[in-house]
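Section 3.1: Structural characterization of target chains.
Under the original work plan, the team committed to producing a structural model for every single-chain target entering the pipeline before any wet-lab resources were allocated. The record below documents one such target. The sequence was received from the expression subgroup and is listed exactly as submitted; it comprises 528 residues.
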Amino acid sequence: MNETFVTLAASATLAVGVAAFARQRGWNMAMPLIIAGVIVGLLPVGPSAPPDPEIILVAVLAPLVFGEALGSSYLDLRRVSRPVLALAIGLVVATTVVIGAVGAVLVAMPLAIAMALGAVLAPTDAVAVSAVARRAGLPRRLVSILEGESLVNDGTGLTALKVALVAAAAGAVTIGEVTRVFVVAVVAGVAVGAVGGWILAWVLRRSRDLVASNALVLVAPFLLYVVAEELGGSGILAVVVAALMIAHSQHSDPGHSGRVQSATVWRHITFVLQALAFFLVGLEIPDVLIRLDSAEIRDVVILVPVVVVALIVTRSAFVLVMVAVSHRGTDVRASRARIKGGAIIAWAGARGPVSGLAAFSIPIFFATGERVPFRDVILATTFCIIVITLVLSLTLAPFARLLRVASDDDEATLRRVDVMLARAALERLSDVESESADAGRPLPEEVSDRLRADVESRIQIAAHPESVTATQEIEVAQMISTARAMVRAEQEELLRLRDDEGLPDALVRPMLRALDVRDQALRTRGAG
């Protein structure tokens, strides 16, 4: 059986098990998965490091980044497009140059190879950054900047790596050649993503078969990535653009029936792929470290601490300049808030599976047959820095509390919006009553009274939250709890009828699914 398939199947099973264990305990799953991968990699049995990193880039990272982008908002990212582009392009280039200089000076790496190390470490990790930012309770704007940066900078970093490897193989490249590669990568990646996203959004809007249309979206990232790469573009950038277009289309249609189903499917897929990506990084670490000779170990020991410091200093300096340039002339209070936000952005620079798999994709030999120098040093340095930055990322929440950077207080906004939604519902109810009466099928009075009373109660509570007493809150909680208990009784009785009286499963499953939806609605209402 194919070795890559066996590795992926076994790794995915182990990774999901560890991730589920960490999730149940409320832990960030990145470090437990990397540790588990290292342990498995040291064992004489079990999956080993994947032999073909290109397959992993397409099979794991393309759908993973696609799923992460589906959960993002094009509108939110557009509001923070300037800092996102500055970080995703400018900071990646700056980091590549600085780390390249560090590698060339410290361990005498050829400059192009040192730049390859910089390109590998330049992108932040979408999975780690998003999870940590949300856990830290940061304001929406900071979360949008960090998520947008980590989605876009993967394409920039991988393109920089491509340029560095071309330069290493050729001996040198001109500024014109570097510019051409970057422009082609961005233009082709965005173009493929835009065309693919438009086609998929068009299909989703017009399809009545949710299973078929959502299945098409599931397989789309693979083709988008491959087509963009074949055209010299960034495959990662293509899947990000397509996913943002699809997500925007789904959330712009008020009656889109597949929105909930699509979100549920991709939530499960991204969970599996996130777990697998971190596990694979851990799995590769033992093999890389074992291959190092004494001179290479010395190089890694020198590089790791200096590169970590260089990454932090470069990011901090870039963000400081970015904040100073973009917010000149603001008042003192606003300046303090933006400086605090800049400090959070500067500290949120975790690296993850993208860097690990990008390093692993560096070929062993050039096309000429010459061995790529310092490859294992780059791999070992990258994996060590991934672990260190992930550990440092756990301090983001305490750092935010120290700076008194709190999440947005949306309570007043949510109440105002809820009142507007309730009034829209009342207006529509009045229209339905009039239309029904004109058609000779008047809406029963008890039905309209019940619907109106429920909506008017929402308006009263939203407009005057102070009027809601503790007793009323307890009564609502008891009502929801009782309603869920009643649904559970129906589920149990339905299964008893199937098991004891032979009610066909073909009848049971649709009814059970309807009860599950009702229970989920009650659970959501109770959580709100």
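The chain has a mean pLDDT of 81.
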